[in-house]
Amino acid sequence: MQKMLSKLNRNEEGIIKSIALEEIKYFKVMHLGLMKNARIKCVFKSPLQDPIAYQIKGCTFALRSEDASKIMVEI
Amino acid sequence: MKRKKACFIGNPNVGKSTIFNILTNKTQHTGNWTGKTVENEFGEFSYKNILWEVIDLPGTYSLIGESKEEKIASQFVQEEDYDIAVVVLDATNLERSIEILLEVLDIKTNVIACLNLCDEAKKRNIIIDIAKLEEKLNLPIITTNAKEKKGIEELCETMNKFIEHPHYPTIPKHNPKIENYLQWARKYIEKPLTYLTNKKELKEKETNAKLNFYRKSLTRIDLLESYHEFGTELLNDVIDRTQEKEKKEDHFWNTLLTNPISGFITMILMLFIILWLTIYLSNIPSSWLFSFFEHLESLLYKMLSFLPNFILNPLLLGGYRTLYWVVSVMLPPMMIFFPLFALLEDYGLFPRIAFNLDKPFAKCGSCGKQSLTMCMGLGCNAVGVTSTRIMESKKMRILSILTNVFMPCNGRFPAMICVINMFFVTDHSLLGSMTSSLILLGIILLGIFLTWIVTKILNHFLLKEEKSMFILELPSFRKPKIIGTVLHSWKERAIPVLKRAMSVSFPAGILIYFVANIHIGEITILEGLYHLLNPFGLLIGVDGIILLSFLLGIPANEIVIPILLLCYTNSGSLVEYESIDSLRQILIANGWTTLTAINFLLLSLCHFPCATTLLTIKKETQSTFYTILAFLIPTLIGIGLCFLITLIF
């Protein structure tokens, strides 16, 4: 089943299927290892629920849910 | 001795600067957040028979991007001459850090790698088969733990050996999309990959047209994807993450800080503790310094008594007294505040703060990283302004630069503490120091509130079209080296700020002495200025002297209080410091009330940035308009606030 990355629950994992970010953001997230077919995990949310922290391999980073909703994952 | 040149390349925050500092004995600051180094750093060291000139490039994830750091690094790697490129890899995140190594291997062959943070990886149970990776890439990989200075000797040894026996590493294989281009391009162009991302034209028209066709169909993203695919395959049987576990302290802090209730309480509590420790611990050394300088003064007086009075008095009563006031009041808090702050920074707490605060900043058109620049501003606003370079868009940078002054810097809060202790806290026990810290905390929170409001308003007027964004790495917590960090923060942060304040306060003291003692007609110049400014001062609930002190304090905020006292004491020279109570008496005798004190605190928080900060703003924005705005906005707000408070009272 595919769903938006922003809808992932805490500690839920998925495989990235598509990324519909503008180029400048796409480029930034690529450096964090966020690419097609990478395994991504939602690790925690900020106290105000947005942004959300994700983990790919050894790297933890924050994305706003606005951006995370443009990324689809297979779970 | 031979001279050779090496450059250090790697992702941000992998310890590149730490290695560079150990090698060159330099003290470039290394914080645990992305983007500390933004320009090339140069240094030298010698090992055995070679004198190495080393260049620390800004940390980047890639050489094919558009950001400032990426451009600086990629230009250097491609165009400069050097004997070795040392690529620093992060053992805790090899999958990502290897990509820049692959990019370098496509351009150069004189490359060695250095796998840093190996202990950290071991702690997290990440298993890396280094021998296999060395064999696959056919280049030497040295394992280091820069924080413990482990592996540095081996690194030097390998660098020297490489000069004698260079060898050729594996060149990355690309996916069919890129390979297709390469097959064609190798016939016409040297280093064809670099031509894919730069805009250089080829002489031959037809080839150029074809190149442009490729440029259109292959984006940077395709290129990065290709590196990523190769890297993933390369590391497939090199890294084993099946046993990986989250570090205990990471788990602890992540749970604590991301909880809706404990998250904010913890952040405020930490700020409070830092302020309280600073206030509580600096009281005693402050009074020591005062009495030391007073004794020294009587000595100096005797020694210099051969000088005529018109020289001796300005020097001692003007210059020297202002100088020792600044040192006694400033030095202790700085020696406590800066190290405490640096420890938290090195530990890796700041990105978490940015993470927690992104939402309110997003509402104002900025992003959480602004809170990082505000943290730096608490130390020194000029540093805060420079640190806005970590923000992605021009709009967010300008917004944070224009509002940075709402964070009271180290030059201002000793003065605030002074006034708080005089008017709002009468007992000076443990409890008293806590109350002062609470009041100061309140002022800083007011500063944060003003930052939000001003950012939001400016967001409506400036650079409307740009949208804010927030993508931030949250590094793992790393135990800082306590002694090293403390010494470093003294040497690199506290001392320079103090030096600047001192170099300003001595001449300023002499100037004030003359202003207060030279008569023009019936009155002194000081009295003249006082009468000029006083009506406006009274209107906003302060007086002419307070306004004059802030104006004369433009070179450095630290001298505001000494000037204030110098002006109030009719003798025309600075009073000796006896007790906080005697100072209070002087101020009260000159008409200070609680209202005056409140307004003084408000003005301290909201007035024009000091000269150094203004120059930094000019340099960073390249715009006189923004520099003037940075001057006017806080000043007008300060005047407005004081006026309002005075009306209400």
Structural class of chain A, by secondary structure, is alpha+beta
Shape of chain A: globular
From the N-terminal CA to the C-terminal CA of chain B, the straight-line distance is 76 Å
Secondary-structure element sequence of chain A? EEHEEEHE
Widest sheet, order of strands of chain B: 2-3-1-4-5-7
Radius of gyration of chain A: 11 Å
Report the helical percentage of chain A: 10-25%
Work out the oligomeric state of the chains in this entry.
Answer: heterodimer
Number of domains of chain A: 1
DSSP strand tally of chain B: 11
**Residue-averaged pLDDT of chain A:** 91
Greatest interface (CB-CB under 8 A), with counts per chain: A-B, 32 and 46 residues
Apparent shape of chain B: elongated
| CATH level 3 topology of chain A | SH3 type barrels
Q: How is the largest sheet of chain A built, in terms of strand order?
A: 1-6-2-3-4-5
How much of the sequence lies in strands of chain B comes to 5-15%
What is the total number of structural domains of chain B?
Answer: 3
Q: What is the arithmetic mean of pLDDT of chain B?
A: 87
Structure description:
The complex is a heterodimer of chains A (75) and B (649). Chain A is of the alpha+beta class and 75 residues long. Chain A has a single domain (2-74), classed as Ferrous iron transport protein A (FeoA) (SH3 type barrels). Helix content of chain A is 17%, strand content 41%. Chain A has 2 helices and 6 strands, in the order E-E-H-E-E-E-H-E. In chain A, strand 4 and strand 5 (59-63) form a beta hairpin. The N and C termini of chain A lie close together (6 Å). The model of chain A has no long low-confidence stretch (mean pLDDT 91). Chain B has 649 residues and is α/β, with parallel strands linked by helices. Chain B has 3 domains: 2-164, Rossmann fold; 176-240, no CATH class; 258-648, no CATH class. Chain B is built from 27 helices and 11 strands. In chain B, the strands form 3 sheets. Chain B has a 6-stranded mixed β-sheet, sandwiched between helices. A two-stranded antiparallel sheet of chain B has the order 6-8. In chain B, helix 18 runs antiparallel to helix 25 and helix 22 crosses helix 23 (560-568). The radius of gyration of chain B is 29 Å and the shape is elongated. The mean pLDDT of chain B is 87. The chains are: A alpha+beta (75), B alpha/beta (649). The A-B interface holds A 23-33, 35-36, 43-51, 53, 57-64, 67 and B 61-62, 65-66, 90, 92-96, 99, 124, 126, 219-221, 224-225, 228, 241, 244, 254-255, 257-261, 263-264, 355-356, 358-360, 362, 368, 392, 469-476.
